[in-house]
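How a chain folds remains the central question behind the approach discussed here. This step matters because it turns folding into a mapping between discrete strings. The sequence in question and its structure tokens are set out directly beneath this paragraph.
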Amino acid sequence: MADLLPGYNVVTKLGDGARSAVYEVIHVATGKLYTLKRVTREANEDDRFLQQAINEFNVSQRLNHPTLRRSIELFKTRRLFKLVQVRVLMEFVDGLSLDRRRPDRLDELLTLFIQIAEGLGAMHQAGFLHTDIKPTNVIVAADGAIKIIDFGQSCPIGHRKPRIQGTPDYIAPEQVERRSLSQQTDVFNLGATLYWALTGQTYPTLITRHGRTRGTVASSAKPPPAPLDLDPTLPPALSRLVMACCAYDREVRPRDMAEVRGRLSALLPVAQRLADQASRQKSEPAAVPDVSTPTTALPPTSDDSLDYSAISEIINPHHSPERRSGPETPS
């Protein structure tokens, strides 16, 4: 694999996606590590995957924020005047995706989402939306710093896409209904991601990860459970914020990432007290049960964790689940 890109050697393969593979590579001359995404064209309908890789590079070139992954260089390969391969050399991110490194402490989790909101706010200031925020597109370093990745579905603010794009369980209503997209679209995606991070369950979006339409939230007789309904220990104000972010009506959602960041920051002192209290309770010795009193064993709980990397674009019925062999996977 030394010739995957001249001057670079492959350290390891990080993952596979739709017509793509992601590698950790080292620059031979300097010893510096990078990430290389390689997208290949195998059929006529694969052109969109190549264009997404090109779009990721072009959008990244317009961004400058420590929470947003940088793209370094774009390489195109043509045969008989047809584009057959795209390689994007990117900043190497040493960490694990949020679905694999979710903080246990509430204050640390909110700090992480404040960083996400800051990064998305920087994108919006540059005139772009991410439109695919989800746990697998947020890389968390060991020190808690985050990096937002994968700008393949990014678009200008106000854009209306010709087809449905997004990830089930995180996709906003206007993405499903192919309306114009706004900053509140990213607010919804972030809110759905925070809903999962707080509850371990996914928000009932209009399309599930199985491609099944659930109907509009507005027409649902029973509203979705709020985070507070699923975990009574959460601050009510945090639960209200999440549900506002996930509102079907964009006018109900926070107007921008600055508002999201401000409301999350205001909750940090409460979150820290709750996290400290939970930590003290865990450190206290458990009460010794009275052996003379029969106890009833609780049934084991099932593992409700799900692999959200299995679907990166709902209009691609041939998409296969990505293999997670490293800190990140392509989408």
